[in-house]
Design brief:
Blueprint: E1 2-8, E2 21-23, E3 26-31, E4 34-40, E5 48-51, E6 57-58, E7 63-64, E8 68-72, E9 74-75, E10 87-92, E11 98-103, E12 113-115, E13 118-123, E14 127-132, E15 137-143, E16 153-155, E17 158-161, E18 167-172, E19 178-183, E20 197-199, E21 202-206, E22 212-215, E23 221-225, E24 238-240, E25 243-249, E26 259-265, E27 271-276, E28 286-288, E29 291-295, E30 300-305, E31 311-316, E32 326-328, E33 331-335, E34 340-345, H1 347-354, E35 359-363, E36 369-371, E37 383-385, H2 386-399, H3 406-420, E38 430-432, H4 433-441, E39 447-452, E40 455-457, E41 463-465, E42 470-474, E43 490-492, E44 499-501
Antiparallel strand pairs: 1-34, 2-3, 3-4, 4-5, 6-9, 7-8, 8-10, 10-11, 12-13, 13-14, 14-15, 16-17, 17-18, 18-19, 20-21, 21-22, 22-23, 24-25, 25-26, 26-27, 28-29, 29-30, 30-31, 32-33, 33-34, 35-36, 35-39, 37-38, 39-42, 40-41, 43-44
Amino acid sequence: MKKLWQQSLGVALERKPYFPVIAGGWYWLPTGDDPIISMNFARPEGGCRKHDLPGNATTTSLATDGRSVFISVQDVNSISPSAKVKDVIALDGQTGREIWRVPTDGTSLSPVTISSGIAYCTSNKGSLYAIEIDQGHIAWRIDVPTWGPIAPAVGNGVICVGGSSNTLYLYDVNSGEAREQFTAGDEYAWFNTIPPAIGDGIILAVAGDGVLYALDLHGKQLWKQDPLRGAGPTTRPVISNGRVFVATRVDPQDYQSGHAVLALDLQQNTTVWGHATERPVLAPPLAVDGVLFFGSTDGRFYALRADNGNRLDDCSVPKRLLTRPVVDGDIVVICAQDGTLHAFDWSQEREAVMAKISPVEFRSGIGQIARSAPTLPTKQTDMVGRAELERQISVLEERHPGGLPLDEMLSAVTELINSASRQQQMGGQQVPVDELVELLNKLQPNTTININIDQSQHESGVKIIRGATWIGRPAGPDTIASQPEPPKPKIQCPHCGRLTKEGGQFCERCGKSLS
């Protein structure tokens, strides 16, 4: 990876994981007890802004939809009814101005999870909130029997809530109606330290005793991974293309340092590969376009091939790396403990990986498939759940009658695919992939979408799309291209200030018109 620049944010971090975001062209970093820091990503030399938190609040995790930043905070010094920390706050990612503020019943709130236009969080008063992010209206609120300072997991139509007990509680994502629950064997193994994750129809959760549990969407245990001498994962599991990526303590006989990032097979709980690190990894890895990024407290920033764990590159910085990496186009950034932000160009690493992955191209308006390898499944057997897909697309259309910005559309469609591809296990009606293209065109016409398929086959014999990486660009003529288009020159967007491809009508970063 080529080092582009580094910039001091003017604040030091404690030794714990942080979850920054990029919104509106700005990098936003939560700093715990100190103010939230934001920096113009296109002009890092321009300095930083500070955004104060109310009262005695603290936060290490932010959420975004690409345009806004969503903040929920904890009051570390007071749990009295008069405490000032009771709100979920939305800020404009570009200007930093407050968009809305939603009062809650809590004096401490979990981090926010964003999914399909809804912000979900829990309060220490035992409430689970679903807040519409467009206007800041509470869609619904329900009582939950547990609470912990971890974000709820949302996906595949399910909300998973953990807390200060050994039980995980599942709820319907639209209504909040209680579903099943799962109780771990050890009554003191609480689910209140590492947030759960949902993907590919499976729930992953780490209990307090270090056991990693895999559950289906009905709370039934599929498998579990017992830790080494009570140790276990140090980060939230990351699900991508049928794999689980997690940093964990491991047997020194296998990995001399006793620390590694592992890739597990999501279905079978087998280790696909492992990569040792000298020191623990505290923030979750980031998987994007076949590349896995993570930083370690040994001060090294790694880029690995997600499929086989081969090292693409690693870079050394003077201090511990504590934040989850974030990507903006060809740039990936990570922040060190001393508050220095490091930016790298990873375009060569991405191109090296993508060149070895067979693409399937969906061209808007024609509903056909271009195959560059004979091993790809045929459109007669590629199926996803029709009912769930159409329902979720209808919800998106209602919330965004004017159409989704490109980056939000890609994120939403990825979630639809991952959710719908599991519907066959629930007896849902299936839809061929070529018909799926027509449904997706409702969300954003005139768009080309490249999908890199991780092919797998369900026990019923029906081949499904388990995971996908999406890349959008303006569509060309109504012909199928078997080779990717050459890179285009970049120009600066007049709205967000970031570089975007020349010749397009809209900025590929913020979605606004370039004219």
